Amino acid sequence: MSRRLILAIYTLLITVPILVIVAGSFRTTRDLFAAPFGLPTDPTTANYATVLGEQDLLRVLGNSVLVVSVSVPATLLLGSLTAFAVARLPKWPSTLLFGVFALGLAVPAQAIMIPQYVQFERLGLRNSLTGLILVDVVVTLPVAVFILAGFMRTLPPELYEAAEIDGAGPWATFRRIAVPVSYPSLAATAIFLLVMHWNDLLYPLLFIDDPAKRTLPLALLDFQGEYLTDYPLLFTGVVVASLPMILAYAFLQRHFVAGITAGAVKG
Amino acid sequence: MKFKLFLFAAPALALYGGFFLLPAVQGLRYATTDWDGYSATFDDVGLSNLTAVVSNDDLFRNALTNNLKFLLVVVLGQTALALLLAVLLAVPTKGSRFLRGLFFLPTVLSSVSVAFIWKFVYDPNFGLINTVLDTVGLGSWKSAFLGNEGTAIFWVAVAQIWFHAGQMMIIYIAGINQIPPELYEAATTDGAGRWQQFRHVTWPMVAPATTLVIAYTTLQSFKAFDLILGLAGNPPRSGLDVLATRIYTTFANSQLGYAAAESIVFMAAIALVTYLQNRAARMAHA
Q1: Which of B6, B14, B263, B161 is nearest to A206 (CA)?
Q2: Within an 8 Å CB–CB cutoff, is residue A46 touching chain B?
Q3: Is the omega angle on the peptide bond into residue B235 within 30 degrees of 0, that is, cis?
Q4: Rounded Cα–Cα distance for residues A239 and A193 (Å)
Q5: Tell me: the pLDDT tens digits for A169-199?
Q6: Which residues of A touch B19 (CB under 8 A)?
């Protein structure tokens, strides 16, 4: 098969389902089932009204935005401080510190979610967005430390030493040297965290019972239960949940690719 | 004085120690009990949960089998597809940049969104695949896809590949771009065709990328949870149950101690697969 043909087929495989979903969100169920590939014969925004109105999706959207706008900067800050320590400590303490976090990379969330559930319940942090933010930060810290330390360790020590000779303490060195030169790696990590935290389903499923505190993936899953085969409504939920990420991706494509692949290259 | 730097790591260490390492250790303790998660009291049952999970739990074994089927299809299919797309798109042209971006796009969607997209693709009555089959006169090939207990997991694997192949493609493109152009020039001089160039230059030179792609794909597909819950419903039927959903279901059925034991076996299975892979990779590189 020629190069063009293969690429054309894969382009269709990616775009057709997405276009059908977007078009379907403006259709009625009957219209969709009559011709799944067609365009809306009589475009309607009723699905959006239902989703945004009855289903309280604006509140859900707000919860998701709140969670990522706290959890991503917090993870980034804690992760970069730790990465700086890893980069600047002498050999064995640095290895030890890094090793402790590297250990967390090997542990899948499903293996520790049960004791975490018990712990958060006892502390009264379950069923709260604070608890959700906290657990998001904790489970992604190992990856953040891994990516950021990987970058900061490769910087020449002279960079830091010059600042220290000028009398800068570690905090000043961190703020004025390490953070600015690590900008590309920080941006990549931020994107990785954003996608992880925005799309996470496991912890909301485990931690959130109160419908008012749901985040997007959880609300979307609940949708399925309520509207089992009302595909246009499900599609509308998919569009609303995905649009912010897709828009961000369109504008920051390079950072998204760098971030998600840096997450993949965690070993 | 350099140890002052530990203070920089202190906040992260405190949170990670308290909410990650500590529960991980507590999990080992819960696994030796029959605790339901609510009662004030529970009994110590020693290793009986663990031995039951390993030796005598059909549901767990079924989930493990599904996990391995899923893993095999995703690893083989996704690695091959990612490499094919990378080879076709590695040379940067205007069109290839756009296509790379498009193929990577599904990676930024949520698993639940991807699950709903594929639920419609597979819908037995109105789904995209069956509609196409009807249109081209292959109506007899129509299928309920996710309705067949024996093969449903393979169709979820297809959705998983659609979801993440673009991400692995990018890793391969990075690998291909590191190959010195002289190698291709030499191969061309020697009269190697495109297939021979791939076989003797590209494939051996992307071995490190392949190791990475397979390792990450394995981990990612072993942990698949959201996609399956979205496609199969909660709890999934036996044909779609995997370890991650099995643990969740056990836990939701108030068998917290037993679910903790399942988690330990789940972790051990991941560790074993990772170890075998590392060995295989080392043998292949040697």
Answers
A1: B263
A2: no
A3: yes
A4: 21
A5: 888 888 888 899 999 899 999 999 999 999 9
A6: 116, 119, 134-135, 138
Helix (H, G, I), strand (E, B) or coil at A57: helix
- Which residues in chain A have Cβ-Cβ distances shorter than 8 Å to B123? 229, 231
Q: What is the mean pLDDT of chain A?
A: 88
Residues of A in contact with B21 (CB under 8 A): 100, 103-104
Compute the residue count for chain A: 267
Find the farthest-apart pair of alpha carbons in chain B and give their distance in angstroms, rounded: 78
Q: What would the two tokens of residue B164 be? A: 């993440």
Do A221 and B112 count as a contact with CB atoms less than 8 A apart?
Answer: yes
- Of chain A residues 68-87, which have a CB less than 8 A from chain B? 78-79, 81-82, 84-86
Q: Which residues of A touch B12 (CB under 8 A)?
A: 78-79, 81-82, 101, 141, 145
CA atoms within 13 Å, Cβ hemisphere of B22: 13
CA-wise closest residue to A153 among A69, A82, A213: A82
Contact A18 B11 (CB under 8 A): no
Inter-residue contact A149 to A87 (CB < 8 Å): yes
Long-range contacts (CB closer than 8 Å, 24 or more residues apart) made by A159-166: A160/A88
pLDDT tens profile B10-22: 999 999 999 999 9
In angstroms, the CA A233 to CA A21 distance is 10
* Nearest CB to B107; choose among A18, A231, A260: A260
Residue A112: count of CB within 10 angstroms of its CB: 26
CB contact under 8 A, B128 and A18: no
Neighbours of B230 (CB within 10 A): 26
Contacts of A36 in chain B (CB under 8 A): 120, 126-128, 131
Distance, in Å, from the CA atom of B234 to the CA atom of A221, rounded to the nearest integer, reads 9
ipTM score assigned to the predicted complex:
0.90
Question: Chain B contact for A191, CB < 8 A?
Answer: no
Ranges of chain B with pLDDT below 50: none
With tokens 């990450």, the residue in question is: B216
* Residue B126 DSSP SS3: coil
Q: Which residue of A has its CA nearest to B20?
A: A138
Burial of B273 (0-12, 13-18, 19+ CB in 10 A): middle
Of B5, B112, B256, nearest to A114 by CB-CB distance is B256
C-alpha B283/C-alpha B286 separation (Å) is 5
This prediction has a pTM of 0.91
